[in-house]
Predict the structure.
Amino acid sequence: MTVRSTVSPAPQAAAAPEQAPLPRLGRLYERFQRWLQARQPRTDTLQLTQRNVYILPTKAGVLFAGTVLVLLLASINYQLNLGYVLTFLLAGSGVVSMHVTHATLRGLTLHLKPIAPVHVGDAVLMDVVLTSPGSARYGIGMRVVGTQLASVSWIDVPELGQATAQLSFVATERGRVQVPTLSAETRFPLGLFRAWTVWRPAADL
């Protein structure tokens, strides 16, 4: 009588789950952010000009443009004179809104006050002074790049005056810590466009 012994193979260790690769759009966004930050020299005082203020339509702006296009096609198809009036009135409002949104940031001066040192794990408070050389500026949001939109500090700058926005981040390392990249944005007055700038302060703590 022959007895056969069956040896079961040892169970293999479960392979560590591989990190899912970033979508192509996410990789392109990260590369764009690195390229954008590399173009910005580190400075504690930033003058906003046409060269460092960027603007793009928001989702509401895209829908607004689509609505204007539909109105234009309907006016052409049905030969509606009042439709033409409404279409070009809305289109003109959108163009004016774009210029006002960009002008809300253009010309401002951003200055970072000296930062007090803190312990590891504590919140670092930063006071950013915004100065307007002319008219009042409304609906300006300051935040630390990479944080949630809920952490945006909204502020208005009076005519020929100054206003201070307070931001914060958590110090996670000992020693000298570089201040993270900051951004300023606005959607004033109609929310159809978003103008923003990227600022790399030179200060550390």
Q: What stands out?
A: Helices lie at 24-38, 59-78, 81-105. The chain has a mean pLDDT of 87.
